[in-house]
Write a structure and sequence with these properties.
- The complex is a heterodimer of chains A (195) and B (396).
- Chain A is an all-alpha fold and 195 residues long.
- Chain A is built from nine helices and one strand; from the N terminus they run ααααβααααα.
- Helices cover 69% and strands 2% of the residues of chain A.
- With 396 residues, chain B is an alpha+beta fold.
- Chain B has nine helices and 24 strands.
- Chain B has helices at 3-9, 11-18, 22-34, 39-52, 62-85, 88-102, 316-319, 333-344, 370-381; strands at residues 53-56, 136-139, 143-146, 153-158, 161-164, 168-171, 181-186, 192-195, 201-204, 208-213, 221-232, 241-244, 248-252, 256-261, 267-274, 276-281, 291-294, 297-302, 307-312, 325-332, 347-350, 359-365, 385-387, 392-395.
- Chain B has an 18-stranded mixed beta sheet that branches. A three-stranded mixed beta sheet of chain B has the order 21-24-23.
- The radius of gyration of chain B is 24 Å and the shape is globular.
- Classes of the chains: A mainly alpha (195), B alpha+beta (396).
- At the A-B interface, helix 1, helix 2, helix 3, strand 1 and helix 6 of A face helix 1, helix 2, helix 3, helix 4 and strand 1 of B.
- Strand 1 of chain A pairs antiparallel with strand 1 of chain B.
Chain lengths: 195, 396
């Protein structure tokens, strides 16, 4: 059991993509476009800008990217480049409005599914509130943890945090949510922390 | 170490929960096998997330997703063109090689066309027909259903139900409004018929793949074909029927015709039996017009020159395969060999490649056994077909 094989698989697909293999493009696109788009949609609501960013992402990495010589993984490389492109585009559109802190609004929403409608509302509101109280960086962290195969090291690099800090944050967040929700939240957080 | 912490620490855990793919699933299947004593707990833990906690958010619609992919691919092609311009000599050599390889496939040309709309339907290439052993239906890139047998019949015309072989319901109708994408993969050695939700009927030949929605909701009824299929389209002037292939698009209102678009073939052939069709090239760059066929004509699109030629043909040579018959006149032996390879899922080697250019005429009933068919071919060509093993034959 190791995650290396996963990374090696993507490295191989990536090399094929760089050699002009369209099947490899399809594979990468299918795997990552939804996650990347979902990620971007939490930074900006501008769909056109996001679509353009996805477009530029693939074009950029195809024509300029020196390839994945040493980065940890393809996924990390895509997230990193995508984020950079979105920010560049946002800066262009907000040329006259530099005051706005760009990542103040990493908007993360959970939906909880249950058969009990009344319970649903309660849980959702609680969870929503909890997430609203987190700062943007923590919301981004949760998103990346749940939606990517990035390692703590890679998430750390994307967020400008130390890997250890990321790890602690994830654990603390899950624990924190569990405490806040008490019995109302599903058993999963409890399960994480009984030793 | 606590098993849950371990799972959360594994970067592939949430990927498995929220973005499963066949690779990820394989990884976890192995993991569960190795750690079988924890399997129950792990699966339970996963299901807690699965069932209860979803991250809501914006997504691309299927159409946006395809359109965007299309746009990117076109841009990538442009980049390639620029890169290539410095390597013209090399590419001429390459094309020459391709031309020699395929010269026996003959026929071709005419009609150039250009059109900006084209929505490539992106598919999971791990499931190309070449890698599949028996007929498979994939619903929404996810549910894989082995159809069994080598001549499955699918029917979508029963209010959203999917029927297999007229009797078995393989999927009940669901309430969801957006139609699901279905991919039917027919490997070499098999064939299939599909009745689409509008009542149109499609015969899918060996080594082919058809992508189509479970029901048609858009203005145009669109399907995507790799390989060969015969279409009998229900007339509906409000909703034209469009067959997309990698190289060309065929647009019709209601008619019967055959499209052969195998990736390994040199040309894409459209043969019209009844009615009228309009054919356009996906990436044409010269003229902005399509080709209209009338009954009894074939349009052959040459993939290399991007040109299309139209000629009168004997229809049954192109459509009898739906009944298990191969009919041909004055055609290169190698073309028949290629068809037999697909039909029986076998491979032929020539001890002298020139033999592939022998012209032959006749009719083959391929539903009969290989041996009988080969015996007939032996008589027809004066060549010997020698069995090397279960799937390889040599032509001498």
């Amino acid at each position: 059991m190791n995650q290396r094989t996963d990374k090696e698989y993507w490295q191989l697909i990536w090399n094929n993509f760089k050699l002009g293999d369209r099947n490899a493009f399809d594979t990468i696109y299918n795997e990552y476009v939804d996650t990347l788009f979902a990620y971007g949609s939490r930074i900006t609501e501008n769909r056109t800008l996001l679509e353009d960013s996805v477009h530029d992402l693939f074009i950029d990495v195809y024509s300029y990217g020196k390839g994945l010589r040493k980065p940890e993984s393809l996924e990390y490389y895509l997230f990193k480049t995508f984020k950079r492109i979105i920010f560049r585009k946002l800066k262009e559109t907000r040329r006259f409005d530099r005051s706005e802190g760009l990542l103040d609004n990493f908007d993360l929403k959970f939906s909880i599914e249950t058969n009990n409608k009344a319970q649903l509302e309660e849980r959702l509101i609680l969870l929503q509130n909890e997430l609203q109280n987190l700062n943007a960086k923590k919301r981004e962290l949760i998103f990346l943890k749940f939606n990517s195969a990035l390692s703590y090291v890679e998430i750390g690099k994307l967020l400008g945090l130390k890997p250890d800090t990321v790890k602690k944050q994830v654990h603390r967040l899950l624990k924190h949510l569990r405490e806040k929700m008490g019995e109302k939240i599903i058993g999963l957080f409890t399960m994480c922390y009984k030793t | 170490m606590n098993i849950y912490k371990q799972l959360i620490g594994n970067p592939l855990f949430f990927k498995w929960v929220y973005h499963p793919s066949s690779e990820i699933n394989t990884y976890w299947d192995t993991y569960l096998n190795i750690n079988s004593e924890q399997a129950t707990e792990i699966l339970h833990f996963k299901s807690q997330f699965d069932q209860h906690l979803k991250i809501a958010g914006e997504n691309l619609t299927a159409i946006e997703r395809n359109a965007l992919a299309e746009k990117i691919i076109r841009q990538l092609e442009n980049i390639d063109q620029q890169k290539k311009s410095g390597l013209i000599f090399k590419s001429i050599l390459k094309y020459a090689a391709v031309a020699i390889l395929f010269f026996s496939v003959g026929s071709s040309l005419v009609y150039l066309y250009m059109e900006s709309r084209q929505s490539t339907i992106i598919v999971d290439h791990s499931t190309l027909s070449a890698n599949v052993q028996e007929p498979v239906l994939i619903i929404d890139n996810f549910d894989k259903i082995q159809l069994g047998g080598n001549k499955p019949e699918l029917d979508y015309s029963n209010q959203g139900k999917i029927m297999l072989n007229k009797s078995e319901v393989i999927k009940e109708s669901d309430e969801c409004k957006t139609p699901q994408m279905n991919t039917l993969i027919i490997p070499y050695g098999s064939r299939s018929t599909i009745t689409l939700s509008d009542g149109s009927k499609v015969w899918l030949n060996a080594g082919s793949r058809l992508i189509y929605p479970s029901k048609f909701v858009d203005k145009a009824r669109e399907v995507f074909l790799v390989g060969e299929a015969f279409f009998e389209i229900e007339k509906n002037e409000e909703h034209p029927f469009i067959i997309k292939t990698i190289d060309i698009e065929v647009e019709v209102l209601g008619t019967r015709f055959n499209v052969s678009a195998y990736p390994e073939d040199y040309s894409v052939q459209t043969v019209l039996e009844v009615g009228s069709v309009e054919i356009s090239c996906v990436n044409a760059t010269f003229f902005d017009r399509g080709v209209n066929l009338v009954a009894g004509q074939m349009a052959s699109f040459n993939k290399k020159t991007k040109e299309t030629e139209v000629f009168d043909v004997k229809i049954e040579h192109y459509t009898l395969w739906t009944e298990g018959l191969l009919s041909f006149s004055n055609i290169d032996f190698s073309r028949i060999v290629k068809k037999l390879e697909r039909y029986y899922n076998i491979r032929f080697n020539y001890n002298n490649p020139i033999n592939g250019t022998i012209k032959i005429s006749g009719k083959l009933d391929v539903t009969k056994g290989k041996e009988e068919v080969f015996e007939y071919l032996t008589k027809l060509t004066g060549l010997n077909i020698i069995k090397l093993n279960n799937w390889q034959y040599e032509i001498k």
